[in-house]
Amino acid sequence: MPLHIGENATDLSLLTHLSHDDIANLQSVGRDAQAARREYILKDDQENVWEYLKSLRGKNDDKKVRVDFVLDNAGFELFTDLVFADFLVTYTPYVSQVIFQYGFSSSPLTQSRLINPILITTLLVLSPKLIPWFVSDVTPPDFLSTIPSLLSETFFPSQPPVSSATEDSASIAAAGPDDKSKPPSTASVTSELGVDSRPHLREMVERWQRYLDNGTFGLSVPLETPIGAQNDKADFWTSPWPYWELKDKAPEIYEGLQASSLVIFKGDLNYRKLTGDVRWPVSTPFETAVGPLNGSFPILSLRTNKADVAVGVPQEVADKLDAAGEKWRVNGRYALVSFLPKSE
């Protein structure tokens, strides 16, 4: 889960001023890197989430559990969404099916198939936007291109291209002698993916393709759905309404989410809409800030701070960060993991 939070910090709005080393650090996945990130999680409900997921095995006699994802960014974040889905399906005893959702639709749920009758069947429904609302939001074409791109031999070339001296000179001249922001060459970037890693990447991505082909990963609308298509069960995600209005403005979505065992809201914008985009006092409980959604269905919000709204943070922690001059609300370094169960 720390990786899943860290990748949310790599959206396009924050990359314009970051160096290559900064981005590589954000995308690092080692144990030490993940442990270091933990101190930046100002509200951390991870243990509660895992305990809740484990408890689902005893609560569902029909062995069917559904998890919904409301997605955020394309690119590296979508890649790690797929990694997370793969982890749940392949390496845990809780999940045996994933359904990717473009807007909420109940039709794919009829495709449920129990791969292993000992496991819980989890319908993991991922909901992207039908327009790139804030530039980098996941759309159906993004999903359509992700797996083929990762399987392409040219995506991670075996031999990094060698730039010519003329090209290097032109780049340096354009940047200026004192400009230290020149990005690294393609050679330095591609060489970081070791040759030994490529077969493992291909094995994983080919498994994703098999999961799509056999129904383990499912889609709620056709992959070919174009950008800008209208769907009554998807348009709410790009409407001006806070998610407090979900029940009234999008009752089909709301009713579907009520049937979910966990709804995961990814990213800063979804967090803002969950909390009404109100600048609450930081110590306000998350359950207060989500208003009428509290108790409606289990909510997990994974959010890197990029806007002023933040709740569930101890006042003394916020005061200390403010006194240190940390722009912790907006700089993308700090995160919140907020979990609310469904009311019994």
From TrEMBL:
EC number of the protein: 3.1.3.-
One Pfam family here: ARMT1-like_dom
Domain of life per record: Eukaryota
Listed GO biological process terms: DNA damage response
Entries under SUPFAM superfamilies matching the protein: AF1104-like
Enzyme class: hydrolase
Protein name: Sugar phosphate phosphatase
UniProt source species: Hermanssonia centrifuga
